[in-house]
Amino acid sequence: MNNFGLNKMMNIKQAWVTLVGAALLVFALAHAAEGITRVRDIARPLGERGNKLIGRGLVIGLAGTGDSAANPSLVAMLQRLGENIAPGEEIKSKNVAEVIVTAELGRNGSRDGDEINVYVDSIRDAKSLEGGKLVLTALRGAYVEDDRIIGWAQGPVSTPNASKPSGVVKNGAHIEIDFYHNYINYENDGSANFMLILDDDQSSFQVAKNIAMIINEETSDPGVAMGQANIDTGMSETAMALDARNIRGGDTEASVA
What we know:
Oligomer: single chain
Strand content: 25-35%
Number of strands: 13
């Protein structure tokens, strides 16, 4: 890669580091009476979002407030643990409740070893989950085709409202894999770009132009006038407002080709 290509790639990465470091980049919005707004507060990079996790498990140790009917999930769990249960045998225990377990990875993704809250809700006729403990439960992504186990959840259930069969296990899920977003899109020709998306309530072409201008100011070579290509190097601006919501950074010439 020549020096021009290397410098351009460094500028793209510099722009992205500037944006994700929310406290590092501020700009004055023309329409905002407050004057100063962080880019991070009104926009997100394309692809950044929370990711839902789900699993089915058992809460044990209840004081007679669990499921009244026979629980096939309890039978399956005991069989996995080596319990000799005859085919067709039913087990009833009001000290156990079958639950759906849900959680959400934050918009910044997660890393192996992170701990997050999980939420449990009865799917049968349990009266309350107060005093119960969630048995080790596998958590997978919301997409059926993705069968990876992303985390494992277990722990004591806290019940803000003991009369409802639901609760939370604080820091109950241990994440098993790195789960992060690839915000920079690398093209076949070696160029790279990223996209910023303005929040709906902040969308306007003027705001998008202001953000693009600040990115260009942060990534341009010293002495290069804004809104003009660097004639000496042939470099174009790093960022461009495409419309009222979308700001593209990187190869801006390709974005309008």
